[in-house]
Structure formats: C-alpha cells, structure tokens
Design a protein that fits this description.
- The structure holds 2 protein chains of 2 kinds.
- By secondary structure, chain A is an alpha/beta fold.
- Chain A contains 11 helices and 13 strands.
- Chain A has a 6-stranded mixed sheet with strand order 2-3-1-4-5-6, sandwiched between helices.
- The longest helix of chain A is centred in the first third of the chain and has 18 residues, at about 90-110.
- The N and C termini of chain A lie far apart (about 60 Å).
- The mean pLDDT of chain A is about 95.
- Chain B is α+β, with helices and mostly antiparallel strands.
- Chain B has a two-stranded parallel ribbon.
- The chains are: A alpha/beta, B alpha+beta.
- The interface of A and B includes residues 279, 292, 294 and 297 of A.
Chain lengths: ~350, ~55
C-alpha cells in the first residue's frame, strides 16, 4: 500500500483563520480535514500516513525555509507520494501547496500533485514543475477536485505514462513533447478548420502563449532633461554582425555606439532579419533607428540627451521566455545608465 | 506589439520611420513627426495599452 503525505494550511486543518496564519510547520499522524476525502478516494490503494500543516503567512513569507522544514518533518514517514491542498483561489495557500510539491519532487524524489483555481498566483509560479489539477474558486469544489488529484497522484506513483493535459485534466506545464501521428499536418489542420466551421470544439497543436500584463511606466515629467534611448527589434547591426545575432529566433542582442554619430550611414550597417524586406532600411538605417532626427531634437533642446548606444536584436519567430530575459537585461542596463525613456522601433 | 503600453503607428513595416517614395527633406519631416509623437506618448499618463495614432 502506498504511503501518502498530505499538506494543509492552518484553516483547512481546523487550527484557525488569519489569526493563526503565522504558525510554523507541524506534522500529525494520519489524515485530517479534507484528508478524509483523500483517504476515501485512495480506496485501499494508499493510506495517508502523515499530514503536514503550516500557516499561510509563515509559508509565503519564508518559502525556502518553510519548504525545508516541511521536508524534515515528512522524512521519517517515508512517503511514496504527496498531495497538497487543494488550495482553490487562496493565493498564499496556493503558493504554499506549489512550494511543498516542488520541494518534495526535487528533494525526496517522490511525485506530488496539488489543485488550484486558474487565477491562483501559485499556478504560474509552479505549473512548469508540478502537476496541478484545476479546481473551482472555493471549497465547494472539494468533492470534484479530490478524486481527480488522487487519481493522477496514484498514476504518477505507479509510474504510468501520463498523457496530455487535456486528456488527463491537469494544467499544461509548458512542455513540448514529440508525438507520431498517423495523419499529416495538412490533414490535421483541415480537420480542425472543419470543426471550427461547424462550431465544434478543437484543440490547437500550437497553443497561444500567455502574455503577461505589463503595468504602464509613469509618464516622463520633463522631457527636456530626459535621456532617451533607441532600441529596435529590426535586426540592424554594424557590418559584419559582431555579436552574431541570429536572423530568426534570436537569443542575443547588441548595443552599438552613437558617440559622434549624427546620422546612421548605410555603409556602416547591415540587417540581420529574415522577417521583412530590409532593402529600405539598408539604404537608410535612420528609417529604422531614427538617430538623425533624435540628434536634431537634442540640439534644439526638445530632449535632454540621446543615449550614446542603441540596442538591437531580431524579432522574428522568437521565444517569449527568451525575449523576456533579453528585455529585462536591456531595461536593467538602460536604467543603470540613467535613461528615462525608450523609443522601441519594430518592423 | 505584445505588452507595449504606449504604441505609435509607424509608416510601413519595411521602413517604420521612413518612406522611400518621398524626397529626403519630406521623408525626414515624416520621421520627425513620428518621433515627436513617440515623445508625446512618453509624456502621457497611461493606464492601459494606448495607441497614439497621429495621422502621418
């Protein structure tokens, strides 16, 4: 029989509400609270041997430390798998459930499953590493969620092959898995199109990436004193492409000096970009990176200063994660240089 | 553009800040108008994704 560990917060363990959210990790023998429903769903295939409880504030404020303490408490019970929550839409609880699952997967090398609502902030933090079952927003969804969580956990513990998220009912983990299909791509896409025309449901093989919401930066109060930088994803690089920026799916960016440059000269630059016809930009690079006009505005005092380097990469068939990292690095460097505004030109 | 909150319309994908059909003087004026629009956007208070769509 499989030895199962369960993780609960102070509320579901019956210890208390917000006034008890600071309590540190503690362990009990056997099941508690929602653990009873898990025990029933295990139906003789496993037994809850230990329940770890931690206050939501304690965990969310000390994720690393709390994870280690939970592992220490669990180790003597030698569990074969762990089930956490479900956390529903409770944010700190979701972060704790995901954190505990990740810790036992990585450190105890046992499978772990949790459940949460799609808007729980724990989802995006842990979905890549942890199997998370979708639940309703509140504990009303307990009876539906628990059998699904237990079923997936048992299959993981017995090392069964786990199918796609849509078949198995867990949140996609951001993995690409190669599969052999007996239909060609053309057959599959036409069949999807027919389903769409008939108003039937279909599953795209290329899910749309999740774009996060970016909070708008505050306005520039005094543009006449502001340092402005030029950044482009149009692939403009000095002749010879010194940073070896790729023509597609770029993983690198370059920064190129503008000291003493009044206007970009065509003989100094080339374009590394296979996503647009670059003939006009090669004729006059200012059509992409408007250094000539920025220098005029600088002379006239309409802006404080043009930043002495422009940044360039290639925006075609890019991976959102890679571009996010690149963007963060560029932003960090620009901020450190005292830049307060950026004009990003895109093709 | 994904995630951008201040968006200015350029001229064309192949020359966002230019127009090869214009003579150099007029083309530079066009470029200046787009850049000035971008500078206006940087000075605008923005709460959500906003298109600064000046005619060019």
């Amino acid at each position: 029989m499989l030895r199962v560990a369960h993780y609960l917060n102070q509320f579901f363990a019956g210890i208390g509400g917000e006034e008890k959210a600071e309590i540190g990790p503690q362990v009990r023998d056997g099941f508690l609270g929602p653990g009873r429903a898990i025990q029933n769903a295990l139906a003789g295939r496993g037994e809850i041997v230990a329940t770890v409880i931690c206050g939501d504030n304690y965990f969310a404020e000390n994720i690393e430390k709390a994870s280690e303490e939970v592992i220490r408490l669990l180790a003597p019970f030698k569990p074969d798998l762990l089930i956490a929550g479900p956390a529903f839409a409770a944010g700190r609880y979701g972060i704790a459930c995901g954190g505990v699952c990740r810790a036992v997967i990585n450190q105890m090398r046992i499978p772990a499953v949790t459940g949460m609502h799609e808007e729980n902030p724990g989802l995006d933090l842990y979905r890549n590493e942890v199997y998370i079952i979708p639940t309703e927003a509140s504990a009303r969804g307990m009876n539906v969620a628990i059998p699904k969580m237990v079923n997936l956990a048992l299959r993981l513990a017995t090392k069964e092959k786990i199918g796609r998220p849509s078949e198995e009912g867990y949140f996609p983990r951001g993995l690409l898995v190669n599969e052999i299909s007996d239909q060609t791509g053309a057959e599959r896409v036409v069949s999807m199109l027919l389903k769409k025309l008939r108003g039937q449901s279909f599953e795209s093989e290329v899910p749309r990436p999740n774009y996060d919401h970016v909070t708008p930066a505050p306005r520039i109060d005094d543009i006449r004193r502001a340092k402005i930088a030029l950044v482009t994803d149009g692939g403009l690089v000095p002749k010879g492409n010194p940073d070896e920026i790729e023509m597609r799916t770029a993983t690198r960016f370059g920064k190129y000096g503008l000291k003493g440059v009044d206007s970009l000269r065509p003989e100094d630059y080339e374009v590394r970009h296979m996503g647009y016809d670059s003939v006009f930009v090669r004729q006059d690079p200012n059509r992409l990176v408007p250094v000539d006009v920025m220098r005029d505005l600088e002379r006239e005092g309409a802006i404080g200063k043009l930043h002495e380097e422009f940044y360039s990469t290639t925006g075609v068939a890019n991976i959102v994660e890679t571009m996010r990292r690149m963007g963060e690095k560029i932003a960090e460097e620009l901020k450190a240089s005292g830049v307060s505004g950026v004009i990003l030109t895109s093709t | 553009m994904v995630g951008s909150n201040r968006i200015v319309r350029g001229n064309k994908i192949v020359n966002p800040l230019g127009n090869a059909d214009l003579d150099p003087q007029n083309e530079k004026e066009l470029r200046r108008a787009i850049v000035e629009n971008a500078l206006e956007a940087l000075q605008a208070d923005v709460k959500e994704q906003t298109l600064f769509d000046q005619p060019i």
